[in-house]
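Hi Y.,

Following your request, here is the sequence exactly as I used it, all 73 residues.
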Amino acid sequence: MKGIINIVKTEHPNLSVQLYDLEYGVGAGSGIDCNTATELATTLLREHVLYEWGTNNDLLWTSEPEISVSNRK
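Below is the corresponding structure, written out as tokens. Let me know if you'd prefer a different format.
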């Protein structure tokens, strides 16, 4: 998926894409848990704000093209 997204971003440089990877598994600290929806919504809103506002030195976060979540303890 990462390779396909890189090719598409090369052809459409104005496209904003972010990969969100969850560790596979069942139980505490892996996969989808009760905080996953909140984390996804926060990440999506941050990416949207960065895309809308552009590069601004007053922001406290940067655009992350890939996010990987594992062992949430």
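Helices lie at 2-11, 36-53.

Thanks again,
Q.
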